[in-house]
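Field log, afternoon session.

UNIT: design team B
ACTIVITY: writing a sequence onto a fixed backbone
BACKBONE:
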């Protein structure tokens, strides 16, 4: 695995005896000099390990990885975990990334999008022809269902798993909960990043004493098992894994209606979808769930059933490996044809 700044997953890979190569110049912002050095380093790594296939993930690593793989003549697949030009991303970021993705779309053999919404977005932006873009929803490892009793919780425990940055909309969640001061709830916020602005806002709203800031945690499944309601309030998304984790934990989900979120959350079935930035509707949705333990249980059970039928890691793995095999096989066939043509030309010259 080739990565920029190493994260918690790197330790897991190393423990599994998988080599991890850190490329220090592989960073998220566009920096031409660092980007050029990163491409050179990635190319050296590919030359040393001689892979049959390169699988690229995330916008920046996906761009540089595709350039490096193509320069080495290695087949490459790009998985788009939400496009950097999706709705909600600031306009000054969307335009350059759309132009770059149009160029890089021709540098890979196939593109995987993690939701149908992102596939349609890519087709509308002319990133690649439809034959080279396939939707495969994210999947999560199977865990036993969480036993939940239909009883009134006091307080009702609400949680959100999201890093603190411009994409996630903690502000709207806090404003919504401030509307529900008369109800008995507690909020758990799990995720890295600088939470100071959110904490200040919670203090100004008079609800900071009801909120626990957990920071980045490695025991998210256990924490979800202790919740009653899950929220993911965002400005933009792709197809969030945190929602699938919540569904796996039999939790009702209240989420912003962005990108592919409605492909996992069915409004009023296994949760509620709310407009971006609308704290009034969000408060109404949360109020329904706070007041009705039976509704929470019913929605949570429907979410669990949908997870088991559609979003396990096995359901993601099978089609993904199918595309990997097809790309490798197709590349080998093209090389064989090219080799045969070269042999024929040599014989004709002889």
């Amino acid at each position: 695995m080739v990565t920029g700044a190493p994260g918690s997953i790197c330790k897991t890979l190393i423990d599994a005896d998988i080599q991890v190569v850190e490329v220090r110049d592989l960073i998220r912002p566009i920096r031409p000099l660092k980007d050029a050095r990163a491409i050179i380093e990635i190319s050296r790594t590919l030359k040393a390990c001689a892979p049959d296939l390169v699988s690229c993930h995330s916008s920046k690593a996906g761009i540089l990885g595709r350039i490096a793989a193509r320069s080495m003549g290695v087949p490459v697949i790009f998985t788009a975990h939400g496009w950097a030009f999706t709705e909600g991303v600031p306009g000054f970021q969307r335009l350059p990334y759309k132009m770059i993705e149009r160029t890089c779309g021709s540098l890979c053999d196939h593109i995987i999008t993690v939701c149908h919404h992102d596939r349609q977005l890519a087709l509308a932006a002319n990133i690649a022809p439809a034959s080279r873009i396939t939707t495969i929803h994210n999947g999560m490892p199977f865990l036993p269902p969480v036993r939940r009793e239909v009883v009134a919780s006091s307080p009702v425990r609400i949680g959100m798993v999201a890093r603190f940055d411009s994409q996630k909309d903690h502000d709207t969640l806090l404003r919504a909960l401030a509307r529900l001061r008369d109800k008995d709830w507690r909020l758990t916020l799990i995720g890295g990043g600088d939470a100071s602005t959110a904490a200040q806002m919670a203090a100004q709203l008079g609800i900071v004493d009801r909120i626990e800031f957990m920071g980045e945690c490695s025991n998210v499944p256990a924490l979800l098992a202790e919740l009653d309601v899950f929220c993911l309030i965002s400005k933009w998304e792709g197809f969030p894994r945190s929602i699938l984790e919540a569904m796996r934990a039999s939790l009702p989900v209240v989420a912003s209606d962005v990108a592919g979120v409605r492909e996992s959350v069915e409004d009023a079935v296994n949760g509620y979808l709310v407009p971006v930035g609308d704290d009034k509707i969000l408060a109404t949705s949360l109020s329904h769930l706070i007041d009705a333990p039976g509704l929470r249980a019913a929605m949570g059970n429907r979410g669990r059933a949908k997870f088991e039928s559609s979003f396990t890691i096995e359901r993601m793995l099978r089609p993904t490996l199918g595309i990997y095999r097809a790309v490798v096989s197709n590349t080998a066939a093209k090389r064989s044809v090219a080799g045969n043509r070269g042999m024929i030309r040599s014989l004709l010259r002889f």
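LOG NOTE: The chain has two domains: 2-139+313-345, 156-301.
NEXT ACTIVITY: expression trials, pending approval
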